[in-house]
Amino acid sequence: MITIYHLETSRSERIVWLMEELGIEYKLEIFPRETTGAAPSPLKAIHALGKAPVIRDGDVVLAESGAIVEYLVHRYGSGRLALRSDAPDPRAYARYLYWLHFAEGSLMSLMLIALVLSRVPEANASPVTARINERVKHMLAFVDVELGPGPWFAGTEFTAADVMMAFPFTTMKHFLDVDIATYPNIDAYVLRIASRPAYQKAMMLAGPRVR
Ligand SMILES: N[C@@H](CCC(=O)N[C@@H](CS)C(=O)NCC(=O)O)C(=O)O
Fold first, then answer.
1. What does pTM read for this prediction?
2. Interval between CA 149 and ligand 1 midpoint (Å)
């Protein structure tokens, strides 16, 4: 059975949600954060970087949420929640790949810079902070437009790209100075996500502990 090592209030909720969407059994081990917010050192005994998510599948220990999502979808989900590369019209497949990778490659990396800067009082008046905040707004406006036709990131089908993309607009929004409600398509998308039974179950088991 797959073990999911979940750090509380973190991206690893994605993997719990994915398993609930796929209806695959798993074992969940939850690690509380240190008071500093860092992952606790026992996670380093599982994977050298000590970050979450990590899964164990027999002898395989795999980190990096995008890699884990692809591993599980293809190895255990028979490709469910992935789009096929050989569809006659490649547009939905291209969108699927784009958003699957955009989540960590572009969106989360920028949002994390904004989050770190927001926690450094000396950075408040810095032009660097202003530039980053502008970039966040620009990126969110882009995502909002792209989600217009919807209902999901790849188009008409809910896919693993949604499992990757939702986190910054759900759990992470609690920690950012960003008002998601000002982006109507993202706001409506979050409501669609929240109404999914698999998401509700995953959040009950591994959702954010917002203090
Ligand atoms: N790109 C990686 C990021 C992994 C990552 O930074 N995880 C965070 C949780 S959201 C973490 O473990 N933070 C605690 C720490 O770095 O101490 C992924 O998608 O898995």
1. 0.96
2. 31
